């Protein structure tokens, strides 16, 4: 038994544990929430919209009051009917606008200076939405959104592997529509380009989930292969090291792709969201640094295990060549001895 094989066993087990944490983080409310991949802070989403409604409608009201003129009374029945219909439509629109202004003003009065803490509640949305490998979680900040030591208080998580829930724009649209203002993201100023970038996130996370599931699976196989090699390598030739190398290399590859998608892909998505006006409407994107450290550590450990099996494969090949050379020389020596014996025996027989 070769005890140095315990090294790749340890490396593979550690990589498996880290990859499993990355895969299962956020599976249930409060489960390893700090290991999110990306977090959308929506605690100030729509602040500019609410402010503009109140200030804009106040300006319109002042302008209308200053320029108001008496409405002429028509004596024509037909004209009076049409004019009455337009007056009714205008009155309804004014009532709706006035109601929206009143609700917006009420929201501003309620939140006062505590915008980040209360605005999301007033709009009917959560303060944050965190995306994990397999699902999304949502909740509010505790003790409040502006505290220096604020932490995420998760209230709900979506069904794992249902990536339709990771469409953050659709989720916000749905929650805003049932809120007190009955508005949508487009009302808050979201552009079509920004909407498209947000809609691409489910595809990215679906690819991430596949990579981490395969990474965990092959890391587990690498553990079994290394454990078996502890007892088989001395008599297993180069087949066992080669098989373990292939398994470890696949685990390393999947973890590498997952790490690159997390680091490069998600970071690029954040830049695109910011460039297309995310910050302007109050949609702040935060990357999960703890998850990034976790996934790269898992990749590094599997890389060490892979290099060990490369070494063992090469060493087994050399041992085989050395053994074949020795056996060849021994056979040649035996054949020469046999021929010499045969010749000397023949001469003795003739004499």
Total domain count: 2
State the shape. elongated
CATH class of the largest domain: Mainly Alpha
Number of discrete helical segments: 9
Largest β-sheet summary: 5 strands, antiparallel
Proportion of residues in extended strands: 5-15%
Span between N and C termini?
Answer: 57 Å
Number of DSSP strands?
5
Estimated structural class: alpha+beta
Arithmetic mean of pLDDT: 77
CATH topology of the largest domain: Butyryl-CoA Dehydrogenase, subunit A, domain 3
| CATH architecture heading of the largest domain | Up-down Bundle
Q: Give start-end ranges of low-pLDDT stretches.
A: 60-79, 91-97
**Radius of gyration from the alpha-carbon trace, in angstroms:** 35 Å
Q: In what order do the strands lie side by side in the largest sheet? A: 4-3-2-1-5
**What share of the residues lie within helices?**
55-70%
Order of helices and strands: HEHHHEEEHHHHEH
Topology, please?
Elements: H1 6-24, E1 38-41, H2 47-67, H3 77-111, H4 115-123, E2 128-131, E3 136-142, E4 151-157, H5 168-177, H6 192-199, H7 201-236, H8 239-275, E5 284-287, H9 289-350
Antiparallel strand pairs: 1-2, 1-5, 2-3, 3-4
Characterization of the model:
It is built from 9 helices and 5 strands; from the N terminus they run H-E-H-H-H-E-E-E-H-H-H-H-E-H. The protein has 351 residues and is of the alpha+beta class. It folds into 2 domains: 3-45 and 125-308, Butyryl-CoA Dehydrogenase, subunit A, domain 3 (Up-down Bundle), CATH 1.20.140.150; 47-121. A hairpin with a 4-residue loop joins strand 2 (128-131) and strand 3. It is elongated. The two termini are 57 Å apart.
């Amino acid at each position: 038994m070769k005890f140095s094989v315990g090294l790749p066993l340890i490396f593979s087990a550690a990589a498996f544990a880290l990859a499993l944490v990355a895969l299962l983080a956020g599976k249930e409310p409060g489960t390893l929430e700090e290991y999110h991949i990306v977090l959308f802070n929506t605690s100030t989403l729509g602040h500019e919209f609410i402010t503009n409604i109140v200030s804009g409608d106040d300006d319109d009201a002042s302008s209308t009051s200053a320029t108001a003129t008496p409405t002429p009374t028509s004596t024509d029945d037909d004209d009076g009917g049409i004019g009455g219909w337009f007056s009714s439509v205008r009155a309804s629109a004014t009532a709706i606008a006035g109601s929206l202004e009143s609700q917006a003003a009420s929201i501003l009065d309620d939140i006062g200076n505590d915008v980040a803490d209360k605005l999301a509640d007033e709009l009917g949305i959560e303060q944050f939405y965190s995306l994990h490998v397999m699902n999304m979680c949502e909740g509010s900040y505790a003790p409040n959104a502006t505290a220096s030591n604020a932490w995420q208080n998760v209230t709900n998580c979506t069904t794992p592997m249902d990536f339709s829930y990771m469409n953050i724009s659709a989720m916000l649209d749905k929650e805003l529509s049932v809120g007190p203002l009955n508005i949508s993201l487009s009302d808050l100023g979201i552009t079509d380009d920004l909407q498209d970038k947000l809609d691409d996130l489910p595809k990215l996370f679906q690819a991430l989930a596949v990579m981490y599931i395969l990474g965990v699976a092959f890391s587990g196989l690498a553990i079994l292969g290394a454990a078996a090699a502890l007892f088989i390598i001395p008599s297993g030739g180069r087949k066992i090291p080669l098989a373990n190398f292939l398994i470890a290399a696949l685990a390393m590859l999947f973890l590498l792709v997952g790490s690159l998608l997390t680091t490069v892909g998600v970071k690029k998505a954040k830049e695109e969201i910011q460039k297309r006006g995310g910050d302007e409407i109050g949609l702040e994107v935060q990357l999960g640094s703890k998850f990034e450290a976790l996934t790269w550590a898992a990749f590094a450990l599997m890389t060490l295990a892979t290099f060990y099996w490369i070494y063992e494969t090469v060493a087994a090949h050399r041992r085989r060549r050395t053994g074949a050379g020795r056996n060849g020389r021994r056979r040649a020596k035996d054949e020469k001895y046999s021929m010499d014996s045969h010749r000397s025996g023949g001469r003795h027989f003739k004499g």
